[in-house]
Design goal:
single chain; alpha+beta; ten-stranded mixed β-sheet; 14 helices; 15% strand; elongated
Length: 429
Amino acid sequence: MQKNRQEILHLVMRRVLEILSSSLNLTWQEFKSHKIRTLLSLSGVAFGIFCIIGVLAAVNSMEYAVQKDIKSLGTNTVYIDKWDYTAGGNDYPWWKYVKRPSPKYSEMLLLKQKVPAAANVALNTSMNGNLDFGDNSVSGVNYYGITEDFANIQHIEIAAGRFLQSSDYEQANNNIVMGYEVATNLFGSPEKALGQLVKLKGGKKAAIIGLIKKQGKSIIGGFEYDNSILMASSYMRQLAREQNSSPVIMVQGKETVPMAQLRDELTGAMRSIRKLKPTQEDDFSLNDIDAFSSFASGIFSGINKGGWAIAILSLIVGMFGVANIMFVTVRERTPQIGLKKAIGAKRITILTEFLLESAFLCIMGGLLGLIIVFLLTLVISATSGFTLFIAPHILVIAVSICIVVGVLAGIIPASIAARMDPVVAIRSK
């Protein structure tokens, strides 16, 4: 019994492979015989697949980069600032935010005591300035003054030297950690930066104790560590007043604490610290990094829908082109179809052969579109510095669409071929 089942399965598999081989061979013969007609008909499918893969690859690559940049700001983290990062547009009440008090170092210390849900609390101040070493000068460098918990919230890799230590924060040491791009522009070779004294804004001197590993460009801006120097906030206060250096308090919640709970505790603590009455509105903003991630996902989802709309229209045009090829093919092969049916070919066999041929034609069009997108990704990645890639799941989607479009395009011609009377078909010219 088991042996009979294996023999039947073997025969079925053999028959399926024969049909696949026959359909593939007929598709290739059709292409060789009518190259221009086939290419023109497949151009719609190629353009549709080009749109789908192109849009999905671009959006997927951009979303990956944006989400990566957002996560670099700190997971499960809230930025306390006087500015609301999600506000904007013509109705943006900038006058309301500009009057708010800036976060303070003293408030950061109090939040550490008042917010049990917080794992790390740090203050970050920033400004822009020049950096000088001998006759060399670099302009537009980001100065970041940070407190000790900053390194726990931000993932910073040190390529050489060391990061700031507790003594640097406590004693306001003039030690700095330098970004890769700044070190390259100032010293030629980044490794030469370690141990050197550089002149900061206002003539202050600082010793380079560490070199940050090259980060690359950020789409959303972020901290841009490649073009920055990091120092203790206590030393930064010697260069500029804290309230004039865009102070921001960064609070990272404990892993087991929901973001809603962290926000509630921060709201209560900040209102208590600033002694706000129950009737007074908040004079601070809690900017949730996880909310930015969800907001970005929504934007990219909308872009994807637009790309799909364009692609579907192109695929419909391509589908009619492939259907036209199949109608012509059925007419040209009518005597062959009649002969096959006369010697015992079943309707399902004829139907399957033509559907597979139609699917293979669409796959050929899809491959053409894929090749164009792949070449474009190489050119854009090489010229723009932004890495564009085609994820494996996009390829699966593209192939699946080609098969579906091929089956839909070939279903009517294949049905006509399968229902032909063998005698009439053999006598036709």
